[in-house]
Protein backbone atom coordinates (compact mmCIF):
# COMPACT_ATOMS: atom_id res chain seq x y z
CA UNK A 1 0.00 0.00 0.00
CA UNK A 2 2.84 2.39 0.89
CA UNK A 3 4.39 1.78 -2.53
CA UNK A 4 1.08 2.60 -4.25
CA UNK A 5 0.69 5.83 -2.26
CA UNK A 6 4.31 6.79 -2.96
CA UNK A 7 3.87 6.08 -6.69
CA UNK A 8 0.70 8.17 -6.78
CA UNK A 9 2.48 11.01 -5.03
CA UNK A 10 5.33 10.89 -7.55
CA UNK A 11 2.83 10.99 -10.44
CA UNK A 12 1.05 13.92 -8.82
CA UNK A 13 4.35 15.77 -8.38
CA UNK A 14 5.30 15.13 -12.00
CA UNK A 15 1.86 16.28 -13.18
CA UNK A 16 2.07 19.46 -11.11
CA UNK A 17 5.57 20.10 -12.38
CA UNK A 18 4.49 19.57 -16.00
CA UNK A 19 1.54 21.92 -15.52
CA UNK A 20 3.79 24.60 -14.00
CA UNK A 21 6.27 24.19 -16.83
CA UNK A 22 3.50 24.63 -19.37
CA UNK A 23 2.34 27.82 -17.63
CA UNK A 24 5.89 29.15 -17.44
CA UNK A 25 6.45 28.38 -21.11
CA UNK A 26 3.26 30.23 -22.07
CA UNK A 27 4.43 33.27 -20.07
CA UNK A 28 7.87 33.13 -21.69
CA UNK A 29 6.36 32.87 -25.17
CA UNK A 30 3.96 35.75 -24.53
CA UNK A 31 6.83 37.99 -23.41
CA UNK A 32 9.00 36.89 -26.32
CA UNK A 33 6.49 37.82 -29.00
CA UNK A 34 5.21 40.93 -27.25
CA UNK A 35 8.79 42.22 -27.37
CA UNK A 36 8.55 42.40 -31.17
CA UNK A 37 6.07 45.30 -30.78
CA UNK A 38 8.36 48.33 -30.68
CA UNK A 39 8.05 52.09 -30.61
CA UNK A 40 10.37 52.27 -33.62
CA UNK A 41 8.19 50.06 -35.80
CA UNK A 42 4.99 51.75 -34.66
CA UNK A 43 6.48 55.12 -35.58
CA UNK A 44 7.65 53.92 -38.98
CA UNK A 45 4.09 52.84 -39.79
CA UNK A 46 2.40 55.92 -38.39
CA UNK A 47 4.57 58.52 -40.10
CA UNK A 48 3.39 56.97 -43.36
CA UNK A 49 -0.19 56.12 -42.42
CA UNK A 50 -0.93 59.57 -40.95
CA UNK A 51 1.01 61.50 -43.58
CA UNK A 52 -0.43 64.13 -45.90
CA UNK A 53 -0.33 61.57 -48.73
CA UNK A 54 -3.32 59.82 -47.14
CA UNK A 55 -5.34 63.06 -47.09
CA UNK A 56 -7.00 62.38 -43.75
CA UNK A 57 -8.46 59.00 -44.85
CA UNK A 58 -12.03 60.30 -45.31
CA UNK A 59 -14.48 57.45 -45.93
CA UNK A 60 -14.70 56.52 -49.61
CA UNK A 61 -12.21 59.18 -50.73
CA UNK A 62 -8.83 58.63 -52.49
CA UNK A 63 -6.80 58.97 -49.27
CA UNK A 64 -8.84 56.27 -47.59
CA UNK A 65 -8.30 54.03 -50.63
CA UNK A 66 -4.54 54.52 -50.19
CA UNK A 67 -4.91 53.57 -46.55
CA UNK A 68 -6.63 50.25 -47.23
CA UNK A 69 -4.01 49.39 -49.84
CA UNK A 70 -1.29 50.10 -47.27
CA UNK A 71 -2.96 47.71 -44.82
CA UNK A 72 -3.48 45.03 -47.46
CA UNK A 73 0.14 45.26 -48.63
CA UNK A 74 1.34 44.87 -45.05
CA UNK A 75 -0.64 41.69 -44.48
CA UNK A 76 0.47 40.20 -47.78
CA UNK A 77 4.11 40.98 -46.98
CA UNK A 78 3.75 39.33 -43.56
CA UNK A 79 2.07 36.25 -45.00
CA UNK A 80 -1.06 36.87 -42.91
CA UNK A 81 -3.97 35.56 -44.92
CA UNK A 82 -7.37 36.98 -45.68
CA UNK A 83 -10.32 35.05 -44.19
CA UNK A 84 -12.06 35.52 -47.53
CA UNK A 85 -9.42 33.70 -49.55
CA UNK A 86 -6.85 34.64 -52.18
CA UNK A 87 -5.69 38.26 -51.88
CA UNK A 88 -9.16 39.67 -51.22
CA UNK A 89 -8.70 41.49 -47.93
CA UNK A 90 -11.56 43.93 -48.48
CA UNK A 91 -15.08 43.51 -47.20
CA UNK A 92 -16.92 45.89 -49.50
CA UNK A 93 -19.36 48.31 -47.85
CA UNK A 94 -21.72 49.32 -50.67
CA UNK A 95 -22.64 52.93 -51.41
CA UNK A 96 -26.34 52.10 -51.19
CA UNK A 97 -25.93 50.60 -47.74
CA UNK A 98 -23.96 53.64 -46.59
CA UNK A 99 -26.64 55.96 -47.97
CA UNK A 100 -29.28 54.10 -45.97
CA UNK A 101 -27.27 54.08 -42.75
CA UNK A 102 -25.30 57.33 -42.70
CA UNK A 103 -26.68 60.44 -41.04
CA UNK A 104 -23.76 62.57 -42.20
CA UNK A 105 -24.30 63.03 -45.90
CA UNK A 106 -23.74 60.92 -48.97
CA UNK A 107 -20.71 58.62 -48.90
CA UNK A 108 -18.90 56.72 -51.60
CA UNK A 109 -18.51 52.95 -51.34
CA UNK A 110 -15.82 51.92 -48.89
CA UNK A 111 -14.29 48.79 -47.40
CA UNK A 112 -13.27 47.11 -44.19
CA UNK A 113 -9.90 45.34 -44.20
CA UNK A 114 -9.78 41.81 -42.73
CA UNK A 115 -6.80 39.58 -41.97
CA UNK A 116 -6.82 36.27 -40.15
CA UNK A 117 -4.71 33.76 -38.23
CA UNK A 118 -6.43 30.42 -37.77
CA UNK A 119 -6.39 28.83 -34.34
CA UNK A 120 -4.45 25.63 -33.87
CA UNK A 121 -6.95 23.86 -31.56
CA UNK A 122 -10.22 25.82 -31.51
CA UNK A 123 -10.30 27.48 -34.95
CA UNK A 124 -14.07 28.00 -34.88
CA UNK A 125 -13.77 30.37 -31.89
CA UNK A 126 -12.85 33.88 -33.03
CA UNK A 127 -11.22 36.79 -31.20
CA UNK A 128 -11.72 40.08 -33.04
CA UNK A 129 -9.15 42.84 -32.52
CA UNK A 130 -10.29 46.03 -34.18
CA UNK A 131 -9.36 49.62 -34.99
CA UNK A 132 -10.94 52.10 -37.37
CA UNK A 133 -8.95 52.98 -40.48
CA UNK A 134 -10.68 56.25 -41.40
CA UNK A 135 -10.50 59.85 -40.22
CA UNK A 136 -12.25 63.06 -41.25
CA UNK A 137 -10.28 64.01 -44.38
CA UNK A 138 -9.63 67.56 -45.60
CA UNK A 139 -11.54 70.61 -44.34
CA UNK A 140 -11.03 74.17 -45.60
CA UNK A 141 -7.85 73.09 -47.33
CA UNK A 142 -6.31 71.59 -44.19
CA UNK A 143 -5.50 67.90 -43.85
CA UNK A 144 -6.73 66.23 -40.68
CA UNK A 145 -4.09 63.48 -40.39
CA UNK A 146 -5.69 61.58 -37.50
CA UNK A 147 -2.42 60.27 -36.08
CA UNK A 148 -3.95 59.43 -32.71
CA UNK A 149 -7.51 59.05 -34.03
CA UNK A 150 -7.13 56.32 -35.06
CA UNK A 151 -3.75 55.96 -36.69
CA UNK A 152 -2.41 54.87 -33.30
CA UNK A 153 -4.91 52.02 -33.03
CA UNK A 154 -4.37 51.03 -36.64
CA UNK A 155 -0.60 50.66 -36.41
CA UNK A 156 -0.92 48.93 -33.03
CA UNK A 157 -3.15 46.37 -34.72
CA UNK A 158 -0.54 45.81 -37.44
CA UNK A 159 2.19 45.18 -34.88
CA UNK A 160 -0.03 42.89 -32.82
CA UNK A 161 -0.85 40.89 -35.94
CA UNK A 162 2.83 40.59 -36.83
CA UNK A 163 3.64 39.33 -33.32
CA UNK A 164 0.96 36.63 -33.52
CA UNK A 165 2.16 35.62 -36.98
CA UNK A 166 5.74 35.22 -35.75
CA UNK A 167 4.44 33.00 -32.96
CA UNK A 168 2.37 30.95 -35.40
CA UNK A 169 5.33 30.50 -37.75
CA UNK A 170 7.35 29.16 -34.80
CA UNK A 171 4.64 26.64 -33.94
CA UNK A 172 3.36 28.72 -31.01
CA UNK A 173 0.26 30.04 -32.72
CA UNK A 174 -2.95 30.89 -30.85
CA UNK A 175 -5.32 28.04 -30.00
CA UNK A 176 -8.27 30.20 -31.03
CA UNK A 177 -8.48 32.12 -34.29
CA UNK A 178 -7.83 35.86 -34.43
CA UNK A 179 -9.46 38.27 -36.85
CA UNK A 180 -7.65 41.57 -37.35
CA UNK A 181 -10.45 43.93 -38.34
CA UNK A 182 -9.84 47.44 -39.68
CA UNK A 183 -13.22 49.13 -40.03
CA UNK A 184 -14.19 52.08 -42.16
CA UNK A 185 -16.67 54.87 -41.51
CA UNK A 186 -16.26 55.11 -37.74
CA UNK A 187 -16.25 58.89 -37.96
CA UNK A 188 -19.52 58.75 -39.91
CA UNK A 189 -21.38 56.80 -37.23
CA UNK A 190 -19.61 53.47 -36.55
CA UNK A 191 -20.63 52.33 -40.03
CA UNK A 192 -17.92 49.80 -40.89
CA UNK A 193 -18.34 47.87 -37.66
CA UNK A 194 -22.10 48.01 -38.04
CA UNK A 195 -21.77 46.53 -41.52
CA UNK A 196 -19.44 43.80 -40.29
CA UNK A 197 -21.72 42.77 -37.42
CA UNK A 198 -24.67 42.66 -39.83
CA UNK A 199 -22.60 40.70 -42.36
CA UNK A 200 -20.02 38.84 -40.25
CA UNK A 201 -17.38 36.73 -41.92
CA UNK A 202 -17.62 34.44 -38.90
CA UNK A 203 -20.85 33.95 -36.91
CA UNK A 204 -21.17 36.35 -34.01
CA UNK A 205 -22.14 33.35 -31.87
CA UNK A 206 -18.58 32.08 -32.43
CA UNK A 207 -17.00 35.44 -31.61
CA UNK A 208 -15.39 35.17 -28.19
CA UNK A 209 -14.77 38.88 -27.68
CA UNK A 210 -13.81 42.15 -29.35
CA UNK A 211 -10.77 44.12 -28.24
CA UNK A 212 -11.17 47.57 -29.80
CA UNK A 213 -8.33 50.10 -30.00
CA UNK A 214 -9.27 53.73 -30.65
CA UNK A 215 -6.70 56.40 -29.72
CA UNK A 216 -3.83 55.03 -27.60
CA UNK A 217 -0.91 57.29 -28.55
CA UNK A 218 -1.34 60.41 -26.44
CA UNK A 219 -1.68 61.68 -22.86
CA UNK A 220 -4.76 63.64 -21.76
CA UNK A 221 -4.72 66.58 -19.37
CA UNK A 222 -5.88 64.39 -16.48
CA UNK A 223 -2.73 62.23 -16.61
CA UNK A 224 0.12 64.65 -17.28
CA UNK A 225 1.72 63.63 -13.97
CA UNK A 226 0.93 59.92 -14.42
CA UNK A 227 1.32 59.10 -18.14
CA UNK A 228 1.53 55.32 -17.78
CA UNK A 229 -2.23 54.80 -18.01
CA UNK A 230 -4.99 53.79 -20.39
CA UNK A 231 -8.74 54.12 -20.08
CA UNK A 232 -10.61 50.80 -20.18
CA UNK A 233 -14.24 50.95 -21.12
CA UNK A 234 -16.75 48.13 -21.19
CA UNK A 235 -14.62 45.28 -19.88
CA UNK A 236 -17.15 44.43 -17.16
CA UNK A 237 -20.35 45.16 -19.09
CA UNK A 238 -20.95 41.67 -20.47
CA UNK A 239 -18.38 39.36 -18.89
CA UNK A 240 -17.10 39.27 -15.32
CA UNK A 241 -14.45 36.80 -16.48
CA UNK A 242 -13.11 39.10 -19.21
CA UNK A 243 -12.76 41.99 -16.77
CA UNK A 244 -10.92 39.85 -14.22
CA UNK A 245 -8.65 38.36 -16.88
CA UNK A 246 -7.83 41.84 -18.17
CA UNK A 247 -6.88 43.06 -14.70
CA UNK A 248 -4.73 40.00 -13.98
CA UNK A 249 -2.90 40.16 -17.31
CA UNK A 250 -2.06 43.81 -16.78
CA UNK A 251 -0.65 43.07 -13.31
CA UNK A 252 1.36 40.13 -14.62
CA UNK A 253 2.93 41.83 -17.63
CA UNK A 254 2.48 45.61 -17.92
CA UNK A 255 1.41 47.29 -14.66
CA UNK A 256 -0.32 50.13 -16.49
CA UNK A 257 -2.76 52.30 -14.53
CA UNK A 258 -6.14 51.08 -15.79
CA UNK A 259 -8.46 54.06 -15.48
CA UNK A 260 -12.21 53.27 -15.46
CA UNK A 261 -13.45 56.88 -15.28
CA UNK A 262 -15.28 56.64 -18.60
CA UNK A 263 -16.72 53.23 -17.81
CA UNK A 264 -19.22 54.91 -15.49
CA UNK A 265 -22.76 54.60 -16.85
CA UNK A 266 -23.39 58.19 -15.76
CA UNK A 267 -20.38 59.67 -17.53
CA UNK A 268 -21.70 62.42 -19.82
CA UNK A 269 -19.16 61.64 -22.58
CA UNK A 270 -20.82 58.26 -23.22
CA UNK A 271 -17.66 56.90 -24.83
CA UNK A 272 -18.97 53.35 -24.44
CA UNK A 273 -21.43 54.10 -27.22
CA UNK A 274 -19.00 56.04 -29.43
CA UNK A 275 -16.54 53.54 -30.89
CA UNK A 276 -16.74 50.35 -32.92
CA UNK A 277 -16.83 47.89 -30.03
CA UNK A 278 -20.39 49.00 -29.35
CA UNK A 279 -21.73 47.20 -32.43
CA UNK A 280 -20.29 43.97 -31.01
CA UNK A 281 -21.59 44.70 -27.51
CA UNK A 282 -25.09 45.24 -28.90
CA UNK A 283 -24.87 41.65 -30.12
CA UNK A 284 -23.79 40.30 -26.71
CA UNK A 285 -20.13 39.92 -27.67
CA UNK A 286 -17.92 40.84 -24.66
CA UNK A 287 -15.67 43.82 -25.39
CA UNK A 288 -12.82 45.96 -24.10
CA UNK A 289 -12.30 49.47 -25.46
CA UNK A 290 -8.74 50.86 -25.06
CA UNK A 291 -8.57 54.66 -25.13
CA UNK A 292 -6.22 57.47 -24.03
CA UNK A 293 -8.92 60.15 -23.72
CA UNK A 294 -9.29 63.31 -25.75
CA UNK A 295 -6.77 66.15 -26.03
CA UNK A 296 -6.43 69.58 -27.62
CA UNK A 297 -5.62 68.04 -31.02
CA UNK A 298 -8.66 65.74 -31.08
CA UNK A 299 -10.40 66.15 -34.48
CA UNK A 300 -8.01 68.96 -35.37
CA UNK A 301 -5.46 69.24 -38.20
CA UNK A 302 -2.81 69.27 -35.46
CA UNK A 303 -3.33 65.55 -34.67
CA UNK A 304 -0.02 64.64 -36.31
CA UNK A 305 2.41 61.73 -35.84
CA UNK A 306 5.16 63.86 -34.29
CA UNK A 307 2.95 64.37 -31.22
CA UNK A 308 2.52 60.67 -30.45
CA UNK A 309 4.25 59.22 -27.39
CA UNK A 310 5.61 56.06 -29.01
CA UNK A 311 6.82 54.45 -25.79
CA UNK A 312 3.31 54.67 -24.36
CA UNK A 313 1.86 53.46 -27.64
CA UNK A 314 4.17 50.44 -27.44
CA UNK A 315 3.16 49.65 -23.85
CA UNK A 316 -0.54 49.92 -24.57
CA UNK A 317 -0.25 47.80 -27.72
CA UNK A 318 1.59 45.16 -25.68
CA UNK A 319 -1.23 45.16 -23.13
CA UNK A 320 -3.73 44.40 -25.90
CA UNK A 321 -1.45 41.69 -27.26
CA UNK A 322 -1.02 40.01 -23.87
CA UNK A 323 -4.78 40.14 -23.23
CA UNK A 324 -5.53 38.64 -26.65
CA UNK A 325 -2.82 35.98 -26.14
CA UNK A 326 -4.36 34.89 -22.83
CA UNK A 327 -7.90 34.77 -24.23
CA UNK A 328 -6.71 32.89 -27.31
CA UNK A 329 -4.79 30.25 -25.37
CA UNK A 330 -6.84 29.64 -22.21
CA UNK A 331 -8.45 26.24 -21.89
CA UNK A 332 -12.03 27.45 -21.77
CA UNK A 333 -13.82 30.20 -23.66
CA UNK A 334 -14.67 33.28 -21.60
CA UNK A 335 -18.30 33.42 -20.53
CA UNK A 336 -20.63 36.34 -21.23
CA UNK A 337 -22.41 35.99 -17.91
CA UNK A 338 -24.04 39.43 -18.12
CA UNK A 339 -25.34 39.13 -21.67
CA UNK A 340 -28.99 39.90 -22.19
CA UNK A 341 -31.10 37.01 -23.43
CA UNK A 342 -32.94 38.07 -26.56
CA UNK A 343 -36.45 36.71 -26.37
CA UNK A 344 -38.10 35.33 -29.47
CA UNK A 345 -41.22 37.23 -30.49
CA UNK A 346 -44.16 35.54 -32.15
CA UNK A 347 -46.25 37.19 -34.84
TrEMBL record:
SUPFAM superfamilies: Zn-dependent exopeptidases. CDD domains: M28_like_PA (cd05660). Residues 112-322 form the Peptidase M28 domain. It comes from the Bacteria. It holds the Pfam family Peptidase_M28. InterPro entries: EF_Hand_1_Ca_BS, M28_fam, Peptidase_M28. This is M28 family metallopeptidase. It comes from Polaribacter marinivivus.
Amino acid sequence: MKKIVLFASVLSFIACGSSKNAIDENIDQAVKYASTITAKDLGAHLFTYASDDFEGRNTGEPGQKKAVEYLKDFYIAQGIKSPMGNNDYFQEVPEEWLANNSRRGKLKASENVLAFIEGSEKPEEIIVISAHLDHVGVNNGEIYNGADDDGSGTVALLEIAEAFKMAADAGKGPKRSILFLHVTGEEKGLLGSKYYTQNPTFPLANTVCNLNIDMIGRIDARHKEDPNYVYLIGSDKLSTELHTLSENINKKYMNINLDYKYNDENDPNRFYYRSDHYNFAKNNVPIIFYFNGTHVDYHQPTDTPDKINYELLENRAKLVFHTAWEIANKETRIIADKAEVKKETTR
